[in-house]
Every structure is written in structure tokens, then in C-alpha cells.
Write a sequence for this structure.
């Protein structure tokens, strides 16, 4: 299998990361907002510099200037991005700052990602890497499925409500402060051969109702791939040098977008067994797929020009 496990490739940073780490190991309603740690961020940037090949870039970077202008004018901004690995957010920030100059750096500094608890609680080193970026931590609804004992389930549901209510308050405060909320609409990393991991979550419709404008970001290529032998072990993820092309859509008005999708369903869609909320999210995912497809051949050409093998085939992508 191509690639070196993350924990092996960057074990050299473990000692420094342990010293720099500040974020909580366990999440409760008091610590859902996790501000970026600039110390660990520097290490993430060094890892990206190691693995992003020539030709990596952010297409449509200028759309983020328009997005920033709207944030500065008081609009509530949402970023919806494809999700392949734990390098997605770090790569976006890195490319924003390198391709967008001052305005890209300003957008990067305003980003607040919605993240699951696993990044904090699964492994101290994973947590240390994740805390290089500002996050609001949530209790993912799908995580409740692991609790089958009735009493345990009831306790976890109570815990999830407290955490997610606190997360909503933190997100509301971030919006008012002019920060941009980044969400992965699939809610999980895409796993080849499991199309359900690329389906948009119905809950994303709620975000469309809470924000004024959004921008869609697709990802072609990735420097970190899920290890099929250990898909749940984030330190086993495989580090791969790659050309990574991210693409930003023009700014989209959330209300207009949502209304257009719902209007296209006709009258009384629920009676016909159509879920309008899911349909709005499905349209988001369709647009991301279309955007992704436009840059697939561009990235492949960049790899060929470098004399590199396309790693996608190795990982079934």
C-alpha cells in the first residue's frame, strides 16, 4: 500500500506536540469552543509543505475575497466542503494563505470548523494536530448508535443535548463576531466503496436557514488517506505526496438557494414522499460533485507533468 502511516511518518513531532497541546482531552458543555493553537499550527503547515506537490492550489480563490467582503458587511457566512481526510481543513487554510495573500489570511483566521468529539478524545496526538485550527466541537448524532444499553443510551443522549446546545450558542456567538463557520456536509470522511459516507446529512438544511451566504469547496487530491486496514485509527492514516487542487464556488445566497430547491419540488412534496430538507442537502452535494469533476483531469495532468503516479487508484478513489 502506498503511503506511510501518520504516526510513523511524523513521530518526530510527538514530543513537541505534547508540550504544545492545550485543548481538553474530554469534551463537555464548558469547552466546546476550542481556539486555534498557533504552536501546533506551525507543525501542521510544515507537514503540508512536505507533501503538497507543485501544482497544488486554490482555484476560485478570488471568490473568498467576495465572501470576506460580505462577512465584513455583517453577513453570516458558511463554508460547505467535501471531506476526505483530517488534512482537509489544514490544507484549505494553508492554500488560502499562500494563494490569497492578505485577504486569504484574513479568511483563514476567521474560520471556525464544526468538528466531532473524536478529534479531541481518540488520541492525544490527533488532538494536538486538530487544535491548530479553531473548532466548535459537537456530539455527532450518529455516535449515539454505539450505545445500545438503554440506561447508557439515555445518559449519552442527555450528554449530547448539553454539548450540542452549548455548541449552538458558541456558533451563534462566532457568527455575530464575523467568523465563518466551516461544515463538512457529509459529516464524516468519504470512504471508497461506501457511498453513504458521501451523502449529505439532512441536518445541513438547518445551517442553510441560519446563514446568509455560503461558499462551496471541492477537493481533488489529498495528502492523507484513510488506511483501509485500520480505518478507525487516525494515526494509521497514510501520508502521501500529492497535487491538491481545492476549488471555491462563487458566493451563494443561502435563502435564495434553499427556496429555489424547494420550489422545484412542486406543491406538497411531503405527500409524495419527498423530504425537502434532504433535497436541499442533496443539491449541495450535487454541486460539490460537479465542481470536483471539473478539476479531476486538471489534477491528473499536473501529476503526469511531474512524472508522478496518481495515488487515487491505490486507494480506490
Amino acid at each position: 500500500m502506498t503511503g506511510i502511516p501518520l504516526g510513523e511518518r511524523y513521530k518526530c513531532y510527538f514530543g513537541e506536540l505534547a508540550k504544545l497541546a492545550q485543548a481538553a482531552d474530554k469534551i463537555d458543555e464548558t469547552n466546546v469552543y476550542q481556539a486555534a493553537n498557533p504552536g501546533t499550527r506551525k507543525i501542521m503547515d510544515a507537514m503540508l509543505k512536505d507533501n503538497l506537490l507543485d501544482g497544488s492550489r486554490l482555484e476560485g480563490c478570488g471568490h473568498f475575497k467576495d465572501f470576506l467582503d460580505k462577512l465584513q458587511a455583517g453577513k453570516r457566512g458558511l463554508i460547505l466542503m467535501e471531506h476526505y481526510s483530517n488534512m482537509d481543513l489544514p490544507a484549505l487554510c494553508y492554500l488560502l494563505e499562500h494563494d490569497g495573500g492578505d485577504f486569504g489570511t484574513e479568511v483563514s483566521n476567521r474560520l471556525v470548523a464544526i468538528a466531532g468529539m473524536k478529534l479531541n478524545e481518540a488520541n492525544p496526538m490527533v488532538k494536538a494536530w486538530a487544535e491548530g485550527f479553531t473548532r466548535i466541537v459537537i456530539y455527532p448524532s450518529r455516535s449515539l448508535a454505539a450505545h445500545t444499553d438503554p440506561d447508557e443510551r439515555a445518559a449519552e443522549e442527555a450528554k449530547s443535548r448539553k454539548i450540542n446546545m452549548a455548541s449552538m450558542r458558541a456558533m451563534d456567538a462566532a457568527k455575530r463576531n464575523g467568523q465563518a463557520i466551516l461544515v463538512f456536509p457529509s459529516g464524516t470522511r468519504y470512504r471508497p466503496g461506501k457511498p453513504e459516507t458521501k451523502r449529505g446529512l439532512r441536518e445541513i438544511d438547518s445551517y442553510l436557514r441560519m446563514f446568509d451566504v455560503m461558499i462551496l469547496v471541492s477537493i481533488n487530491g489529498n495528502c492523507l488517506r484513510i488506511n483501509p486496514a485500520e480505518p478507525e485509527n487516525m494515526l494509521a492514516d497514510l501520508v502521501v505526496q500529492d497535487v491538491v487542487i481545492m476549488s471555491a464556488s462563487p458566493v451563494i445566497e443561502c435563502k435564495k438557494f434553499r427556496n429555489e430547491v424547494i420550489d422545484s419540488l412542486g406543491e406538497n412534496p411531503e405527500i409524495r414522499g419527498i423530504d425537502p430538507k434532504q433535497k436541499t442537502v442533496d443539491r449541495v452535494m450535487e454541486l460539490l460533485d460537479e465542481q470536483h469533476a471539473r478539476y479531476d483531469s486538471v489534477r491528473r495532468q499536473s501529476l503526469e507533468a511531474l512524472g508522478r503516479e496518481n495515488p487515487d487508484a491505490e486507494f480506490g478513489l
Observations:
- Residues 4-306 form a domain with the Glycerol-3-phosphate (1)-acyltransferase fold (CATH 3.40.1130.10).
- The chain has one domain: 4-306.
- The radius of gyration is 19 Å.
- The chain has twelve helices and twelve strands.
